[in-house]
Design brief:
Number of helices: 6
CATH superfamily of the domain at 31-205: 2-enoyl-CoA Hydratase, Chain A, domain 1
Order of helices and strands: EEEEHEHEEEHEEEEHHH
Largest sheet: 6 strands, mixed
Distance between the termini: 51 Å
Length: 287
């Protein structure tokens, strides 16, 4: 709560100037939750001591808002550009979706240096399908979660290859109040894959397309024109048998289509994950 004054030199200003700042604790939100259509999306940005509590609260809140798990077709766990964090939280997040089996293990040079962590009974997703999104910015703890869910066939991993940070580093004190960071072991997924340098390869490779800065309004109009239906044409015949409920359903479907098109333009990988879960829900019996 104390006040400090910092002096800022800015190119656009002729003279340095002072800014008063109040000291405070910055709390990072580790997980952001939302529901898109019938899909719950959990954006995990880091693995700190709030990650699992945020995840559990977010899933519970979104399921209640949807009126129950029967109204949800699946979950997207978005680990893109998540650099990692606490191993304990990566284990808890993996355990949240696994009923049993190994989550991750570490192996050093000596056999006795290894550790192994296993899942306990309980699945926050209640058996619903899961898609995990990763990219080149997903590292360390993110790769542990993606690898565990992939090896147990609990989730479909979508996106691009992860970073490949799979080493255990220990801080060793040295003389003169110094310290040395020493690599002592490597992380392995349940199937025995080493994450180090190899990363996690997605089940389905989906690149995030770059927007063309040279695209014109004519290009956009051409794409939109390809998605028009008979009802959009001037002078088309009305369907006299439509009830008010039918018309309302048509408007809802139109709104959902527009929302999906917007998401596809803004975040193609997330849109792909949601479409994948929609497809799975149509061929699987309701749970």
């Amino acid at each position: 709560g104390s006040e400090i004054v910092i002096t800022v030199v800015r190119e656009s200003e002729p003279e340095p100037f002072d800014i008063k700042i109040i000291r405070d604790t910055i709390k990072l939100t580790a997980v952001r939750d939302k529901t898109i259509g019938e899909t719950i999306v959990m954006r995990v940005s880091t693995f700190n001591d709030q990650t699992y509590p945020n995840l559990e609260d977010g899933i519970t809140k979104q399921i209640e808002a949807a009126g129950g798990i029967e109204n949800i077709n699946g979950f997207v766990v978005d680990l893109r550009n998540n650099p990692g964090g606490l191993l304990s939280q990566a284990i808890k997040v993996s355990d949240a979706f696994l009923e049993k089996g190994e989550i991750v293990s570490t192996r050093g040079r000596a056999p006795e240096d290894g550790d192994r962590w296993n899942a306990r009974t309980g699945d926050l997703a209640q058996g619903k399908p899961i898609v995990v999104l990763i990219n080149g910015g997903s590292a360390s703890a993110s790769e542990i979660v993606a690898g565990a869910l992939q090896d147990h066939r609990r989730a479909i991993v979508v996106g691009t290859k992860s970073f490949g940070k799979g080493s255990v580093q220990t801080i060793m004190p040295v003389a003169g109040d110094g310290a040395m960071r020493l690599t002592t072991a490597r992380y392995y997924t349940p199937s025995g894959r080493s994450i180090q340098a190899l990363g996690v390869s997605p089940d389905i490779i989906v690149e995030q397309p770059r927007k063309d800065p040279n695209s014109t309004e004519e290009d956009t109009a051409e794409v939109e024109g390809a998605t028009r239906t008979e009802a959009d044409l001037r002078g088309s015949l009305d369907n006299d048998s439509l009830s008010d409920a039918d018309r309302e359903q048509i408007e809802q479907e139109r709104a959902r289509a527009e929302e999906a098109a917007k998401l596809r333009d803004e975040d193609f990988q997330l849109s792909y994950a949601i479409d994948l879960l929609k497809g799975l829900s149509t061929i699987q019996p309701a749970q």
